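dumping this here so i dont lose it
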């Protein structure tokens, strides 16, 4: 990614995108940065900002940003016509152009499909463009340039992230029970048939909350649709943060209907010898005693390679689940209908 090195000096990175265009890089950034104090950069993930957020960004640009090389604006959209992304891009472009004028165009990067509306905007202003990789959908694009570009510019180890994903992909190519994705998918599916139609990601490192939200989109958009028989099906993904949600949701989890499958997630290093570790051990023991279905996913330390491992694990699990549920995991017809309706009524 040598052609992107010119952006690495940026102190303020503005990422415009929504859903699959930014959730993966946002999840990795939020997870990693609290463990890398030397990173002094600030990233603003601008998905569909309200007036207050625009005012905050505008004030920051006016009062804190001094040099043009301190900033980079990255706009990401596969279709290049997502209304929220286009509107946010235009507003951010105006805010930054007002201060730096036409030279600012050299600090903008567009990642989209060739000839899309966003791509055409870039061509008119002679802005750098990178093609979206193939026909990969946003929620499956974590290891593509759509996200690795942001991670690289932000100073994170994008290569280690991708390497972690490849390691897990290799494990998931096996046809036996040694395939971790097949094993988890079968476990979730068997419990789904027994009425567990909620899949809860119960996370005991708060910095991984956005990772849970990335999982939420992956599950919801990939599996909630009509199956081959024409029946509407779906698994409801939720995100819980421990121990906080043990004081708001645990009564429902343990005393309510047995309609959820839980994936407990923690980093062994980051919560070692803490109240979070005790809470984790206690709640998993309580789930076991209550005969509630769950698995544990434990990593040694939060870093790019481990996050790549986990995200590839989840993507492969969803693909295996789709086979069992007899649905196509790659389309999102309901979302496309919503987007079309939004554009038609603009």
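and the seq i came up w/
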């Amino acid at each position: 990614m040598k052609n992107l090195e010119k952006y690495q000096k940026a102190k303020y990175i503005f990422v415009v995108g929504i859903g699959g265009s930014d959730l993966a890089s946002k999840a990795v950034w939020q997870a990693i940065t609290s463990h890398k104090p030397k990173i002094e950069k600030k990233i603003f993930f601008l998905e569909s900002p309200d007036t207050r957020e625009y005012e905050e960004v505008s004030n920051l640009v006016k009062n804190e940003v001094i040099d043009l090389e301190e900033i980079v604006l990255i706009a990401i959209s596969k279709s290049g016509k997502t209304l929220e992304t286009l509107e946010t891009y235009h507003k951010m472009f105006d805010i930054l152009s007002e201060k730096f004028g036409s030279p600012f165009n050299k600090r903008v990067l567009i990642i989209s499909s060739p000839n899309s509306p966003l791509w055409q905007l870039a061509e008119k202003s002679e802005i750098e463009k990178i093609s979206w990789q193939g026909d990969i959908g946003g929620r499956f694009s974590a290891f593509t340039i759509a996200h690795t570009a942001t991670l690289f510019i932000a100073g994170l180890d994008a290569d280690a992230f991708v390497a972690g994903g490849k390691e897990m992909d290799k494990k998931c190519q096996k046809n036996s029970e040694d395939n971790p994705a097949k094993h988890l998918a079968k476990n979730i599916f068997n419990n789904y048939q027994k009425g567990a139609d909620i899949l809860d990601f119960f996370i005991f490192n708060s910095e991984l909350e956005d990772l849970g939200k990335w999982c939420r989109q992956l599950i919801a958009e990939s599996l909630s649709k009509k199956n081959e028989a024409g029946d509407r099906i779906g698994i409801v993904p939720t995100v819980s943060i421990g121990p906080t949600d043990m004081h708001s949701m645990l009564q429902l989890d343990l005393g309510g209907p047995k309609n959820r499958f839980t994936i407990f997630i923690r980093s062994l290093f980051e919560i070692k010898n803490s109240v979070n570790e005790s809470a984790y051990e206690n709640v998993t023991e309580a789930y076991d005693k209550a005969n509630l279905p769950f698995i544990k996913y434990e990593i040694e330390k939060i870093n790019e390679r481990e996050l790549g491992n986990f995200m590839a694990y989840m993507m492969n699990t969803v693909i295996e689940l789709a086979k069992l549920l007899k649905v196509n995991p790659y389309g999102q017809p309901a979302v496309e209908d919503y987007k079309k309706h939004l554009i038609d009524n603009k």
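The chain has two domains: 2-156, 160-325.
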